[in-house]
UniProtKB/TrEMBL annotation:
Lineage top rank: taxon: Bacteria
Active site: C81 (nucleophile), C199 (proton donor)
InterPro entries xref list: Iso_Racemase_Enz_sf (IPR053714), MaiA/AMDase (IPR026286), Maleate_isomerase (IPR028615)
Name of the protein described by the UniProt record: Maleate isomerase
Length: 258
């Protein structure tokens, strides 16, 4: 019997070039050790600079993207802008996921929806991480928004680095090899885990396992957490080689998102 293929829909900012690289890379690595196969389908929302004004305008366009992707009968949708969701208010990922799922239902092609914001929250809870340190590319006020959002979700941020990169393409151009040293400079000794990239545009996948060795604790990114939650939304074991402790197989059968 041929392996089942799943269609992964991604709602992405127009200037995002990392989510469509790292999510497929993780799932292609999974294909080397598991039978399922994946195809990837995107719809884009206009955004070039990571400012509150552009983020709000972009989020308003996400309904259109959900409908377009449901036209392709995708099996699951991932909304790939963490800070756009978090900047809309505490707990907003739940409302966004419910609203976008409703658009797929109305279009006759119901599909679960995962936001990278909700996935980061759930990934940290899955790890049992109550205290973290994190790296984000945003300007400091937006990074504080992320910190406050996680705090509201029961995750204490002991320290953070705001790289203060306003242009979204410049975020994607940041060298991931620099991230482990940036994380090491944080006050992380009391942290249960470290978020190497609290942004799906800041590349980090190639540095996650090095960072875990350097820091001696689980290291995640928004993209890794998103893949974990996408797989569980499909009721598939959430594991993939080369993507850190969360996808090591230790949490492969964690409860699917509600």
């Amino acid at each position: 019997m041929p392996a089942r293929s799943y269609r992964i829909g991604q709602i992405v900012p127009s200037s995002n070039v990392t989510m469509e690289t790292e999510v497929p890379a993780i799932l292609r690595a999974r294909e080397a050790v598991a039978p399922e196969r994946f195809t990837f389908h995107s719809s884009r929302m206009r955004m070039t600079r990571v400012t509150p004004e552009q983020l709000r305008a972009m989020d308003a366009d996400s309904d259109r993207c959900a409908v377009e992707l449901s036209d392709a009968r995708v099996d699951v949708l991932g909304y790939a802008c963490l800070v756009a969701v978090m900047s809309n208010g505490l707990g907003y990922h739940r409302a966004a996921e419910a609203r976008l799922h409703a658009r797929t239902v109305e279009n006759g092609a119901p599909a679960p929806v995962v936001t990278s914001a909700g996935a980061l929250v759930e990934g940290l809870h899955t790890l049992g991480a109550k205290r973290i340190a994190l790296v984000a590319p945003y300007l400091r006020p937006l990074t504080r928004t992320v910190v406050d959002y996680l705090t509201h979700e029961g995750v204490e941020v002991l320290d953070f680095a705001a790289l203060e990169i306003p242009d979204n393409l410049d975020v994607a151009a940041h060298d991931p090899a620099l991230l482990p040293a940036i994380a090491q400079r944080l006050a992380h000794s009391g942290a249960d885990a470290v978020v190497l990239s609290a942004c799906v545009q800041l590349p980090s996948l190639s540095a996650v396992e090095e960072a875990e060795q350097l820091l001696g604790k689980p290291v995640v990114s928004a993209a890794i957490c998103t893949v974990h939650r996408l797989l569980r939304a499909l009721d598939l074991p959430a594991h993939a080689p080369g993507a850190g402790h969360l996808l090591s197989g230790a949490y492969a059968e964690s409860a699917p998102p509600v």
